[in-house]
Amino acid sequence: MNNTIKLSHLRTALRDISYPVERREAASAFDGVTVLMADGDADLGGLIRDCVTDEFADPMDLYYELHNAMPITALGEPGQSDGDA
């Protein structure tokens, strides 16, 4: 696995392990993988450790949980909205 991935490729990268998977196993599998975000980067294993769910049924389950564990600046400017005019 590549040691650096863009946030936009996260879903694909999460398919590299077998599911269902426990949080600690998933975190260990992705230790050392850096996720490049809109404002900085983070270790994917560390982000997975910050999740509250103990087991993930499939890659999408982990993907959605990771969005809750990421810093608010990961996806772009804080306070910005796609729909406000």
Please give a handful of descriptors for the protein shown:
single chain, 85 residues, alpha+beta, three-stranded mixed beta sheet, 33% helix, DUF2795 domain-containing protein
Descriptive report:
With 85 residues, the protein is α+β, with helices and mostly antiparallel strands. Strand 3 (34-37) and strand 4 form a beta hairpin. The chain is globular, with a radius of gyration of 13 Å. The protein starts with a strand and ends in a 16-residue tail after the last helix. It has one domain (4-74). The strands form 2 sheets. A 3-stranded mixed β-sheet has the order 1-3-4. The chain has a two-stranded antiparallel sheet with strand order 2-5. It is built from 4 helices and 5 strands, in the order βαβαββαβα.
**Which sheet architecture does the biggest sheet show?**
3 strands, mixed
Give me the side-by-side strand order of the main sheet: 1-3-4
State the total count of DSSP E strands.
Answer: 5
Strand content: 15-25%
Mean pLDDT: 87
Cα Rg: 13 Å
Low-pLDDT residue intervals, each spanning 5 or more residues: none
Helix content: 25-40%
Principal-axis shape: globular
SSE layout and pairings?
Elements: E1 4-6, H1 10-13, E2 21-22, H2 23-29, E3 34-37, E4 40-43, H3 44-49, E5 55-56, H4 59-69
Parallel strand pairs: 1-3
Antiparallel strand pairs: 2-5, 3-4
Short structural description:
The chain has a 3-stranded mixed beta sheet. A two-stranded antiparallel ribbon has the order 2-5. With 85 residues, it is α+β, with helices and mostly antiparallel strands. The protein is 33% helix and 18% strand.
